[in-house]
Amino acid sequence: MTQLMSATAIADAARPAAIPRIPVLLVEDEADDAKWIEAILSQAREVHFDITHVEGLEQGLRALRDGDFQCVLLDLSLEEGEGLNALARARVAAATVPIIAMTSQDDEVLALEALRYGAQDYLVKRDPEPRLVHRTVRHAVERHRILADLAQARRQEHYLATHDSLTGLPNRLAYEEQLRRTLAYSSRSNKEVGVLFLDVDRFKNINDTLGHPAGDQLLRTVAERIRGVLRSSDMVARLGGDEFVLMLQDVKREHDPGRVCQKLIEAISAPCALEGSDYRVTASIGIALYPRDGLDPETLVRNADTAMYHAKSEGLNRFSHYSEAMNSVVSRRLELENGLRGAIEEEGFGLAYQPQIDLETGTLYGVEALLRWRGPDRTTVATPELIAIAEETGLIHPIGEWVMRTACNEGAAWNDPRGRGVKIGVNVSTRQLADPSFALVVARALRDSALPPDRLELEITESSVLQERGITLTTVRRIQDLGVRIAIDDFGTGYSALSALKHLSVDTIKLDRSFVSEIPKRSADMTITAGLIGIARELGVAVVAEGVENRAQRDVLLERGCTRMQGYLFARPSSAAELETQLSRGIPTWARALPAS
Ligand code: C2E
Ligand code: MG
Ligand code: MG
User: In this structure, are 317 and 427 located in the same domain?
Assistant: First the structure.
């Protein structure tokens, strides 16, 4: 039973249209009291109170549920006689709408009590001051609006503090909070929880070669694909960079997370359009299970991270379950890092040299210098692992300088059996090239060793050619100006094999071992290999095939027009002394591996 006072309608007509309207619910069973307040409210000038009047509490509660009121005026002495109880019920029905309690003149004690029950304010009926009534209602509405804005701002602030702005996913903070809650619940209900640590493989390559906007786009796509695989009760968060953590609730059987990982790996490796071309990226994932692999979020995430590293070291694009033994891998890494720092002071490194053979002439084309280091336990550390640590820690700069000086010094005196100086290949990592003073390091090594510049060939990777907005290119060109040769190493493995050639005139490309090792099994690789050799020939660039291990590979490469090779078939890397012995011999051991002519 909704009654609108005619006085409101009359006042309405006299008002300009733009003034704010405030919908108000009036719950009042005394007709005179209702008339009194409606008359007063209708006199307001700056706002227009849109009053809906009901006579009983039940009607009021219904109206509250259905309507959209900014304020409730509630009589505390309704016929239904519920007093403060009525107030409590109205609060429940409309938690966010401010309620003004109305009491009779002799009942201010009750009015004060009403504030404690959640009323915003109170009015004493028949108050002779209309402005006070207006103000009370408007203040209640205004205060409510401010509180609502504040709550909204807090929600916004909380959102920003708990979410990653790039992908819109929760961040580490939100993840750990949620994981903590889930773990507490799971410990009571004896359930298992899966924590997955996912890292995009070779993300840096994409970022470096296609630029940061493409990298960002890729991360958003990966985030979407992960979300697409998960159930609604699972959670994914971005930790930063290309790292994501996932939480699988209520893991039923032990291989469940493995199945999810398999789906994630498939989803992520679907082609992804970036900068107008399709790229395929992969990810590696580590799994830790609560409670088996850890009892708190920090331990679980750390162990899942360790398992992810393990998956990477097994060859990327796969997942791995955490095991205690993996921790020894991490501590070994720390040990290596410390050992490496010590080795710089003690010059504990060595170089091995691997011959490159020119099969057309049967002679040595050059040698590649490869870094060797015996770690803290005196066993040789795998060079790629060593280089990775050196790059991450920045130790690559002093180590690289040592390599450059040593290779030039040792190699300067070497001549092939025909008396021609041997070309020395030295590997240079991207971080070295990003250092503008690196050209100086090269110039000094040449000067001090008296090695002719054209006998030095720097092996750089495709991705480093396109990196760092040209710093690298400038460095490389400065080195070329010294007369030094440039080779592109591991050619064909990056995303930019051909554009590397466009940006830089190089002397040599080194065809990556992965193409050679599939010969003659996979026809796709054969086609690519033949194509790359053809392009290099067109450009007048020398091609050296890496990792040639058997005669079948040798013969196919020869057939395709690649005549320079390096690999175990001809010679393994050896010490400077051994190489000198070979060079002084009339017939070196690799002669056995040459094709019968
Ligand atoms: P890379 O430049 O592609 O060097 C060739 C790698 O293949 C060497 O591994 C070599 O021992 C190995 N290899 C040669 N022939 C064969 C073969 O027939 N079969 C197989 N399976 N492998 C073969 P190594 O010495 O472990 O070096 C690995 C990588 O570490 C190098 O790849 C290079 O990228 C990097 N590296 C080595 N020395 C240095 C250095 O002084 N500075 C920098 N920045 N990187 C270096
Ligand atoms: Mg190399
Ligand atoms: Mg290589």
Answer: no
- The per-residue pLDDT of the chain, averaged, comes to 88
Please indicate, yes or no, whether residues 152 and 181 belong to a single structural domain of this protein: no
Q: Determine the Cα–Cα distance for residues 102 and 271; give it in Å rounded to an integer.
A: 67
340, 349, 427, 462: residue to mutate for ligand 1 pocket, most atoms within 8 A of CB: 427
Same domain, 480 and 403: yes
Residue 513 falls inside a structural domain: yes
Q: What is the CATH number of the domain that holds 119?
A: 3.40.50.2300
**Ligand 1 atom nearest 425 alpha carbon:** 2
- Looking at ligand 1, which atom is closest to the CA of residue 432? 44
Pocket probe for ligand 1: among 381, 383, 432, 575, the residue whose CB has the most ligand atoms within 8 Å is: 383
Q: How many CB atoms lie within 10 A of CB 563?
A: 18
Range of the domain at 297: 172-324
Model confidence at 495, pLDDT cuts 50, 70, 90, reads low
Q: Is the CB–ligand 1 distance for residue 366 below 6 Å? A: no
Q: How confident is the model at residue 268 (pLDDT cuts 50, 70, 90)?
A: very high
Q: What is the number of domains present in the chain?
A: 3
SS3 590: helix
In a domain, 329, yes or no: no
* Atom number in ligand 1 closest to CA 390: 44
Is residue 338 assigned to a domain?
no
Q: How far apart are CA 103 and CA 73, in angstroms?
A: 10
Statement to judge: residues 414 and 292 lie in one domain: no
Shared domain for 262 and 126, answered yes or no, is no
Whether residue 346 is contained in a domain is answered as no
Confidence of residue 13 (pLDDT cuts 50, 70, 90): low
Ligand 1 atom 20: the closest Cα is on which residue?
Answer: 547
Q: Of the given ranges (217-231, 326-340, 447-461), which has the lowest mean pLDDT?
A: 326-340
430 CB within 6 A, ligand 1: no
Distance 368 CA to ligand 2 centre (A): 7
Q: SS3 string of 206-264?
A: HHHHHCHHHHHHHHHHHHHHHHHHCCCCCEEEEEECCEEEEEEEEECCCCHHHHHHHHH
User: What's the CA gap between 504 and 33, in Å, rounded?
Assistant: 90
Measuring from atom 17 of ligand 1, which residue has the nearest CA?
547
The answer to whether the beta carbons of residues 490 and 515 sit under 8 Å apart is no
Give this prediction's pTM: 0.59
